[in-house]
Amino acid sequence: MPTITFDKKELLTLVGKKMKDEELENLINSLKPNVEKITENEVVIEFTSDRVDYFSIEGLARSIRSYLGLKNQELKIQKPKIVVTYESVPVRPYIACAVVRNLELTDSLIKSLMNLQEVIHENYGRKRKKVAIGLHDLEKIKGQIKYTGASREEKFVPLGEREEMSLIEVLAKTEKGKKYGHIISSANKWPVFVDEIGIFSFPPILNSDRTKVTEETKNIFIDITGTDKNAVNNVLNIFSLVFLERGATVEAVKIKGEREEITPKFLERAIEITKDDVKKFLGIDLDEESIKKLLEKMDYKVSLTKQKIIAIIKPYRVDVISKFDVLEDIAIAFGYENFEPELPNVFTQGEVHKIEKISDEVREVLVGYGFQEVVRPILTNQKLQFEKMNLKNGETIKILNPVSELYTELRVWLLPGLLDFLAKNTRESYPQKVFEIGDVVLKDETKETNSINIRKVAGVVADNTSFFSGVKRIVLEISKIFKKEVSFEEMSHPSFIEGRAAKVVLNGKEIGFIGEINPLVLENFKIYMPVSTFELSLEDF
């Protein structure tokens, strides 16, 4: 969770109310963040990663004003005047842009914007892989703007430099290039924004020195690029909020490519709840008018119908996904200190579930073999689970209306997630030995939910000396601690080298596999080291 330092005087100025330190601390803590300390000049706050709008001092100030019942201005985006031409850039396929006009920049505001960029990059932006942000002096951009793929030999003057560098030199010689170059280095074409002069942005690495933002800058061009379309649009909405709160005008941009669209998509959304939802999930009995006032306190617009409460979510509230997020905001506005605690009316005595005991014992064995544990998302996608594994698309449980193309279904095996982890760590030293113990979800029409969770363990060893025999020995050691005897039967599988894979069988039932990964699969993941692996169901031990 990010910890951010804000200027106390500036925060109170933006809120529009004088407050003592204790009052300010209690107020911020009530909203969800945690104040670590308040000094004479600064407020240091730890934020949860979901409230991206709070990463900016402007977003936090707006929320405080709303909570106090102070007036917030209506935020509007102006119609587009600038067109950006878009060409497909597979390594970074999504863009969103905006223009900011009539901005009064100071040194402190520039520093605040740079800090906001980096906090979003490191957290919500997944260290620039998911989202990267560029801010440019619009007056220094000449002619038509185009987003396209460039060869690594093309040149520009990077931010902070005086001489031209080729894109490959930027990756090799600059601090940002060394740190973030791996995100795009394997692509044939690298993403750039160009005008009639040449390259002025090289996302997610560096902007050009030509278009750098200074105190003399009045108009700004914003470029957001990334691998997650929703995240890209969300970040542009956050920056639109920041500039609008500063009194600037934010103008949309028309993006013309295979499809034509206008960004930012500064659109409000509606989620319906009822007073029965509030009573059921929060345990408080409130009428519709009281709920409306609580939601307005949290910066919602609210309309009431005969049976429903319609909460209108602002474009920058990217954390609100379902009615449960709305209910959480009602709880925050009501005040957790105002809830009356109740003792459970049923006494139960808990104990550790059998599968957790098994998991802990297996974990201990693998740590003893020098493995490190990782935790991968249970949500995944067809490309990772099947295409990269050299398999045809398989049957999975799909997510209805997924918010990201990366998370469209539930995983059916652990191995792809571990290979994805290795792919993100190719710059680290070898050998690399990692494992995961977690659930996969399979379809099962005999169950009430039409699905079943199965606890599995999987491990990978990436090393020049990584062989079938090594992972076989580990599987035998795992079976030994449960006094079980497993056998191995040769199998043919597209994900593994022919003749170097086997089923793991226990009491006549297949419970997993071991093998050496097919070089085609390694190439798909951009892993250039032999990998051996095992995956077992723990339900049968």
Notes on the protein architecture:
It is a single chain. The protein contains 15 helices and 27 strands. By secondary structure, the chain is an alpha+beta fold. The longest helix has 17 residues. Strands 4, 5, 6, 7, 10, 11, 12, 13, 14 and 15 form a ten-stranded mixed beta sheet that branches. It is globular. Helix 1 packs across helix 3, helix 3 packs across helix 7 and helix 9 packs across helix 10. It starts with a strand and ends with a strand. It has four domains: 66 residues, Phenylalanyl-tRNA Synthetase, Chain B, domain 1; 186 residues, Phenylalanyl-trna Synthetase, Chain B, domain 3 (Phenylalanyl-tRNA Synthetase, Chain B, domain 3, 3-Layer(bba) Sandwich); 66 residues, Phenylalanyl-tRNA Synthetase, Chain B, domain 1 (2-Layer Sandwich); 184 residues, 2-Layer Sandwich (BirA Bifunctional Protein, domain 2).
Topology of this structure?
Elements (H helix, E strand, L loop, with lengths): L2 E5 H8 L5 H11 L2 E5 L3 E5 L10 H12 L9 E9 L7 E8 L5 H16 L8 E7 L7 E6 L4 E2 L8 E2 H7 L1 H6 L9 E5 L4 E4 L3 E2 L12 E7 L2 H17 L3 E8 L3 E4 L5 E5 L1 H8 L5 H10 L3 E4 L4 E5 L9 H12 L19 H15 L3 E2 L5 E2 L1 H6 L21 E2 L4 H9 L8 E12 L7 E12 L5 H14 L4 E5 L5 E11 L2 E9 L1 H7 L5 E7 L4
Helix pairs in contact: 1-3, 3-7, 9-10, 11-14
